[in-house]
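Chapter summary example.
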Amino acid sequence: ILEIAREFIMKRHKGQEDFRFEEIPLDDHPTYKLFQEGKTEAVFQFESRGMQGMLRDAKPSRLEDLIALNALYRPGPMDLIPSFVARKHGREEIEYPHPLVEKVLSETYGIMVYQEQVMQTAQILGGYSLGGADLLRRAMGKKKVEEMVMHRATFCEGASKQGISEDKAGEVFDLMEKFAGYGFNKSHAAAYSLLAYHTAWLKVHYTAEFFCGNMTVEMDNTDK
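The structure predicted for these 224 residues follows.
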């Protein structure tokens, strides 16, 4: 759809003979307004009724918001959407499991949304290597009990070197375990959300080309 629309833009608009989606700005206000109003029919990843309602509540204003909402809108993490929205709009206080991980969790308002955030927390607080943190993530995802007992001890030991009490370390570990079970891969969500942004930008700025691209691709799908 994007490629067909791009060809139309290059042929029909003077000065756009070398148009590339990679060069469009990622802070385009009208594009975020489209998301905020939930007018996302035929916008990649955000076209369902449920997604449209979530967008109207969340009012995303940056690419990071789209990435997080994309990752949250699936069974399990969906329960966190109301808290994510309330924190974004200042209706709920943003709390962090520990001050040291504020940098890692600030873009998602203190909520662990991505697998990468669970791994970074293990590195920062528990002294894990990157490889070790990935093993921890896998063990958490598969709920391997024996491995979890071992990892909990390792994490608490690493945290104690940072002056973190065993109780607090256990509390953070429980939180990590909860999120790792359904944490989404950020790089995957980011790639999807960038495509979604390109699609929405096209719908706003080159509406005719957007609909022509969609109709060309969906010609045989009567419902669409």
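To summarize the output: The two ends are 14 Å apart (CA to CA).
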